[in-house]
C-alpha cells in the first residue's frame, strides 16, 4: 500500500507535536522515522494509525484520503514499544483477537494463528499468558498479532528498545526479513540511528516535529544536507569543527583552522571558498594516523575508548579543539601520546554556521 | 535472608524488645474492642448481663437463653433484611456500573467540561449528606409524582432510598474508578482499537478485565455502605416500619420499654453475620483498593 502524508500537523494548544510533515512511502517500502526523543515520531505514527486526528493536513492510503476512517477500518498492524499485549488473555487469544473481531470462523482463526506463531517461533507458547513470557517472546507475540490479520501497512513504535543488545540484533534481522518476505509497507519509528540505517529503505529524519530529510541511508550518510543530520546519522558521530575558513590557492583550495591547514579537493572546496567561517565535518573513520614522514596535524591523545574492533580515540588539537578518530587497538595509544593525524579530504563536509545547512549539497 | 539474620544477631535484644513492645501496645489498644465483641456475643444468648457475666433473674451466674433470638421467627425481620439486601445490591450494581463508565470517560476522553465535572464531583463528595436531606426530600417528592416511575423510585420506597444512596456514593466511586483506569496503559487500548475493536468493546473486553480487583473492592465498599445505611433509609421511609436493619434496630430501641438491650444486641449480631462472612472471603481484595488495583496483572 502506498502512504502519503501531506502537510501533516498535530498541535495540542501551544504544544506542537508534528509540524507540517509531507512524505510519500512507496508500496512495500520500509521507511524509518528517526529522531531524538520528543520529536513527534509516535505522534506521526498514531495519526497514520487513526488514533490521533491530525490538526491539519492529509493522510492518503493508495491515493485515498483516510483522515476520517477509524483505525479498525484502516487494515494496519501495529507493534508497540510496551508490546501492549492483553495480560488477561493467553498468547493464542491475543493473536486471535483481531481475527475474532473480523468474525473469522473459529477453525480458520486457529489455523492462521498457528501459522503465524510457527513462523515467529512461538508456536509452543500459545497457551501461556503474556506475564509468563520473556521480553523477546512477548515481542514476537506482539509482532505475530500485528501480522495475523494480513495488514496492508505495518507500524512499529520503537519495538526493540526494551530488549537487550543481542536480542535486539536478532530481532532487527528477523523483522527486516519478514517484512521483505511479506512485502508489507512498513513504517518503523526509532531513535536509534543504527536500527534505521540497517533496516530501512529510506529514512525520514525528524527534529522538533519537522521533517529534516527523507532519503536513503547511504545518501544521508554520504551527503548530509544539514548540520543536524550530519551529527545525528553515523556512529560514532561526525566531528564538527568550528571556525574553518576555506581559501583558494591557485588551482587548489585550503581549509584553514587555528590547529591545521588542509588541502581540499576542488569539487568540494569551490562551493565553500570565500564564504567566511564555516563548520568542517569529518567522520571518525575518515581520519587516520599519518604515516612516518607524512605531514599530519599534530595533537595529543586525550581519551581512548576501546570499542572492541577499534579504539575510539579523542585527540586534543592546539586551540582546545577535540576530534575523534578510530584507531587500531594494536597501536595501544595512551592518553598523552603525541599523534599526527591525516584526513581523507575526499569525504569532508562543510556547513554554514548560520543556516546550519550544507554548503555542498542542496 | 542473610541480612536479616545478621541484624537479628547484632541488634539482638533491643530489637526484640522493641517488636514485643509494639505487640503489647497493639493488643492493649484493641482490648476494648474485643471486650465489646465478647459482650455482644454473650449478651445475645443470656437473660441479662453484668459486665461480661451472664445472669439469670435471681442474679446468679447462668441464665442462658435463646429468647433474644426469637425475632428470627418474625416475618418482619426478613422483610427488613430483604430491604437491606436490596439497597446494598442496588448500590453495588448502580455505583459499579455508573462509576466504571464515568471513570473510563473521565480517564480516557477529552470533552468539554471534563475538568469542571471532576472538581464538581470532588466538591459533592465533600458535602455531608445530612446537609442535603431536605433538598433530596423535594427531589424524591417530585419523582413520586411521576406516573409509574414514582412507585419504584419515589418517596417511601426502597428504590427511592437506593437511588439516593447510589447518587451520594457516586463521587467516590467515579474518582476511584478513574484512578484505576488511569493506571492502565494507553498502548493496550490503542492496540485493541487498531485490532478492530469498537470503543465499547475495548472498555468491556480489554480494560474492564484488568481493573477487576479494583471493581471488586469498590463493590465491597458500596455493599457495606448500603447494608449498614441508616440516615437515608430512616429519613426517606418515614411512616413505614419496614425499612432496613439499622432502622429496625432503632425502632426496637424506641418502641419497647424498657429497652431490651440483649435483644438489640442479637439483631445487631444478626446484621453483622453476612459482613463477617464477606470480610473473611474478601479481605485481600479489599486491601487492593489502596494499592492501585492491577499490580501483577492477570
Ligand atoms: N497527548 C498529548 N498532549 C500534549 N502533548 C503531547 C501529547 N502527546 C505528545 N505530546 C508532545 O508532543 C511531542 C512529540 O511527542 P511524541 O510522543 O510524538 O515524541 P516521540 O518522538 O515519539 O518521542 P520518544 O522517542 O520519546 O517516544 C512531545 O513534545 C510531547 O510532549
Ligand atoms: Mg515515542
Question: Would you kindly provide a written description of the structure presented here, covering whatever features stand out?
Answer:
The complex is a heterodimer of chains A (362) and B (298). Chain A has 2 domains: 3-232, P-loop containing nucleotide triphosphate hydrolases (Rossmann fold); 239-351, Nucleic acid-binding proteins (OB fold (Dihydrolipoamide Acetyltransferase, E2P)), CATH 2.40.50.140. In chain A, 25% of the residues lie in helices and 35% in strands. Chain A contains 9 helices and 20 strands. In chain A, the strands form 4 sheets. Chain A has a 6-stranded mixed beta sheet with strand order 6-7-8-3-9-10, with helices on both faces. With 298 residues, chain B is mainly α. Chain B folds into 2 domains: 2-65, no CATH class; 73-287, MetI-like fold (Orthogonal Bundle). Chain B contains 12 helices and 2 strands; from the N terminus they run αββααααααααααα. In chain B, strand 1 and strand 2 (53-55) form a beta hairpin. The longest helix of chain B has 43 residues, at 2-44. The radius of gyration of chain B is 25 Å and the shape is globular. Chain A binds chain B through residues 46, 49-51, 70-72, 74, 76-78, 80-82, 84-88, 97-98, 101-102, 129-131, 145, 149, and chain B through 185, 187-188, 190-198, 201, 206, 209-210, 296-298. Residues 12, 15, 17, 35, 37-43, 191 of chain A line the site of adenosine-5'-triphosphate (ATP).
| CATH superfamily placement of the largest domain in chain B | MetI-like
Can you list the strand order of the major beta sheet of chain A? 6-7-8-3-9-10
- Based on CA atoms alone, the radius of gyration of chain A comes out at 25 Å
Largest sheet of chain B: 2 strands, antiparallel
> What's the number of structural domains of chain A?
2
Low-pLDDT stretches of chain B are: 1-8, 292-298
Q: Using only CA atoms, what is the Rg of chain B?
A: 25 Å
**How many angstroms separate the termini of chain A?**
30 Å
Fourth CATH level, the homologous superfamily of the largest domain in chain A: P-loop containing nucleotide triphosphate hydrolases
Roughly what percent helix of chain B? over 70%
Question: Please, what is the oligomeric state?
Answer: heterodimer
Helix/strand class of chain A? alpha+beta
**CATH architectural name of the largest domain in chain B:** Orthogonal Bundle
**Globular, elongated, flat, extended or rod-shaped: what is the shape of chain B?**
globular
Under the CATH scheme, the architecture of the largest domain in chain A is 3-Layer(aba) Sandwich
CATH topology of the largest domain in chain B: MetI-like fold
